[in-house]
Amino acid sequence: MSQISFLILSGSYIFRTGLRSLLEEMEITQKVYLAEDIDKALKIQADILFLDTLQVSPASLPAAWTEESHKPVLVGLLPHTNGELSEHREIWDHFLDLSLTKSELLEEIRRIIRESGYQEHPAPREEKLSEREKTILRLVALGHTNRDIAEKLFISTHTVITHRKNITRKIGIKTVSGLTVYALLNHLVEMDEIQEQTG
Amino acid sequence: MITENTKMVDLVHRNYSLVSVLHRFGIALGFGDKTIREVCREKDLDIRFFLEIINSFLDHDYFPREHLISFPLQLIVDYLTQTHQDYLGKRIPEIEAIISDSENPCYEKEEHNFLLVKFFREYKNELIVHIRREDEKVFPYTLQVEQYYLTGRGPDPLTGYSIMDYLQEHDDIEEKLFDLKNIIIKYLPPPRNPDACYHVIAMLFDLEKDMQDHSRIEEKVLVPKVALMEKSIREQTHGNKSFGS
After folding, report:
1. Which of A7, A13, A76, B55 allows an S-S link to A53, with CB 3.0 to 4.6 Å?
2. Full domain range(s) for residue B39
3. Based on the domain organization, do A139 and A97 belong to the same domain?
């Protein structure tokens, strides 16, 4: 996984939005979800959860967060340096002391990310299209539907859709007409071919 | 947070994009030291509605609010219609004029200018269709629902069409604008006329931001408000049977 999603659970507006702005500074951040209470938090799936220890007691942790198989990383938010958490320490993977300075906080969060097995800086995304993707992009630009393309290339529509998702992710273009412009600029198709199709 | 005692000038200093929001309310620059209250009185505007629109524009977390839901739909619809006119009457023609200026083309090669203009016109045409549909079909429908809801009079609006059908269509317009930005930023070659391109990029980002705000009002205020009224009408007059399901 190249990027990480975070969830911040706290009843405090200041905690939530403050921590969010820190996380959004990091390159690896894909999405930051905010929740005021456990009910809201449970509807969200994220990789690393920051939980307000004043609000979430280890005993009240929902099973979804503690089951071994798909467990997110649990970080307890400590409002004070001397926050005592003697009982059930083992529930938490990490703690974050909210009284730290900005650079200390960022350093701590980076450490948590590293120790949780994520790359701190995501590898630069591979953006070159494969030959297969180029073929599909060409057909899209020529106005073929997913089903047409599947039939032509003897693959399932599902596979075509997966290729198209990857194309969009790689080049950052979402619509068919945008893809057509991209294909023209990169000479995957020529203008007269397109005009033949539409004319 | 903006209140009725805030000076107009401070509003614009805080976020210059509000100038176009003010324009939709018929407020032009040159406020002197007037406060929001004074200007709203002069122009006979609903202050509470004005403040909700301004605050929601400045703070995205401000929505959704009970308040806005309580305003007459006509106010919201008028505002949204004005926004549409701003897009089609002003912003889009301005961008189009720059990129299709053959005296001073953006790019060296004819084919690049051609592609940019072609893509932009496709976007424009789609936007026009979308806006027409809202102005001519969706908005009148919402007003009809409101009238029926309040008075029980007028034609029964619930004949198949529901406000939820309308939600589905926003995406493609936003995606095309996103693509347009990327085509200029990433894929077309460095321009022959960089100033024109900077200008176009700035206008596209402004437009995108304004449209996000516009969609937020539609999706978080207009649609929920109408959906509530639809539900109530359905329960009262249609006896909660399988109507519309």
Report:
1. A76
2. 8-62
3. no
Nearest CB to A185; choose among B115, B179, B180? B115
Q: Distance between CA A130 and CA A140 in Å, rounded?
A: 15
Walk across the sheet containing A73-78 and list its strands: A29-35, A4-9, A48-52, A73-78, A94-97
Q: Which of B15, B91, B90, B96 is nearest to B59 (CA)?
A: B15
The pLDDT value recorded for residue A198 is 56
B14 vs B71, more confident: B14
Which chain B residue shows the shortest CA-CA distance from A176?
B176
Determine which of B187, B204, B208 to mutate to test the interface with A (most A C-beta atoms within 10 Å). Answer: B187
Residues of chain B in contact with residue A194, where contact means CB-CB under 8 angstroms, are: none
Q: What is the mean predicted confidence (pLDDT) over A169-191?
A: 93
Q: State both tokens at A48.
A: 């690393």
Report whether pLDDT(B237) > 90: no
Residue ranges with strand state E in chain B: none
Task: Give the nearest partner residue to B175 out of A174, A181, A184, using CB atoms.
Answer: A174
Q: Is the pTM of this model over 0.90?
A: no
Flag whether pLDDT at B244 surpasses 50: no
Q: Are A110 and A15 in the same domain? A: yes
> Cα(A72)–Cα(A171) distance, rounded to whole angstroms?
31
